[in-house]
Amino acid sequence: MRSTLALLVALTLAVPALAQPQDAQEREALRSFLEDTISDADSFEDRYDAEVWLVDMSGRLTRFVADPIYRLELLQDIHAAAVQAELPPELVLAVIEVESHFDRFAVSRAGAQGMMQVMPFWKDEIGRPDDNLTLNKTNFAYGCRILQFYLQKENGRLHKALARYNGSVGSRVYSNKVYRAWSRHWRTDPLDWSE
């Protein structure tokens, strides 16, 4: 993948916070889900598909991340976490754009950290107090698994799952922001945004 990274760099140069669930059962279910699923994975099975996706997304990410090598490493980490959590990587990119504008050191008023704005209490909840939420791989693993949990809970309904992710159940303000980011900057394949 190192030579692919060099090729991609050359081609690229040419071309609100997660709320703690109020319901004790939901909180325990999410805690258990996170504990069971936080892990790393290499998500690209086909080299050609990897190169096409990375070059395409790298060009789109330029507005947020100037360094082409960091951009590609970031995209690899986002893709891996998204695929591991059975999420469209483009949806995760839209969430990150809305949550932090790709600032790994972002901290919300509520204390959520990193690109996906994960609340630090989750580290203690799953027995991993030493995890660093400003490390992208860690942040993406938590954020993607939390979003996966809420998508499963809401039977794939994106607006409702995103509202839960953001802690704004009953409102579509946050999910509409994610939808706009996805449709303007990250869309590749259709996603079902209907209720």
Structure description:
With 195 residues, the chain is mainly alpha-helical. The protein has one domain (2-186): Lysozyme (Orthogonal Bundle). Helices cover 60% and strands 0% of the residues. It has 9 helices and no strands. It has helices at 2-14, 24-37, 47-61, 68-84, 89-100, 121-125, 136-153, 158-166, 173-186. Helix 7 (136-153) packs across helix 8 (158-166). The radius of gyration is 16 Å and the shape is globular. The protein starts with a helix and ends in a 9-residue tail after the last helix. This is Transglycosylase SLT domain-containing protein. Pfam families: SLT (PF01464). Keywords: Signal. It comes from Pseudohalioglobus sediminis. Belongs to the transglycosylase Slt family.
> SSE order, as H and E?
HHHHHHHHH
Structural class: mainly alpha
CATH class: Mainly Alpha
User: How many whole angstroms does the radius of gyration measure?
Assistant: 16 Å
- As for the number of domains, it is 1
In short:
This protein has 9 helices and no strands. It is mostly helical.
Helix/strand layout:
Blueprint: H1 2-14, H2 24-37, H3 47-61, H4 68-84, H5 89-100, H6 121-125, H7 136-153, H8 158-166, H9 173-186
Helix pairs in contact: 1-3, 1-4, 2-7, 3-4, 4-5, 4-7, 5-9, 7-8, 8-9
Properties at a glance:
Transglycosylase SLT domain-containing protein; signal; mainly alpha; 195 residues; Transglycosylase_SLT_dom_1; Lysozyme; 9 helices; 60% helix
